[in-house]
Design goal:
This protein is mostly beta strands. The chain has three helices and 14 strands. The protein starts with a strand and ends with a strand.
């Protein structure tokens, strides 16, 4: 079983598509250590998958095109985190997008994101704090 914590994002960009719904560009994300993919607002995710990645209805993309896909960029506070396509595309004989349409209006960030960053979750003193550190891969 995984753990979850809710965080505020200043911005989330899927290529040139703004991933947050609020007028000020902010939105919430549920960091979920028990989730393997990334889920977001259906309209935003479908636009990204269809218009940018040219994915089919099952999320399959052309493997040869992955190198040209845009990064997913999340801004938390003063820190900007970048997720390259190799983390949000499952590579194999066929290639699939791991950014999926969810049922809500916010984001759920799972292992597709968390595998790129060392994530520290501090639940002490009635304060929930999440810190992401770049891993040297």
């Amino acid at each position: 079983a995984g753990g979850t914590i809710l965080i505020q994002m200043k911005k989330l960009m899927l290529g040139d598509i703004e991933g947050c719904k609020e007028e000020d560009g902010t939105c919430e994300a549920l960091i979920d250590t028990g989730c393997s993919d990334i889920y977001g607002p259906k309209a935003k995710v479908n636009k990204f998958r269809e218009d940018i990645l040219k994915a089919d209805k099952d999320g399959e993309v052309e493997c040869d095109a992955v190198k040209d896909f845009p990064n997913l960029v999340m801004t938390l506070g003063q820190k900007t985190l970048t997720l390259e396509p190799s983390f949000y595309i499952e590579m194999g004989n066929k290639c699939y997008c791991r950014i999926l349409p969810g049922g809500g209006s916010d984001w759920e960030i799972g292992d597709a994101w968390l595998s790129k960053f060392y994530t520290e979750i501090d639940l002490t003193e009635d304060k929930e704090k999440v810190t992401f550190y770049d891993l040297i891969l």
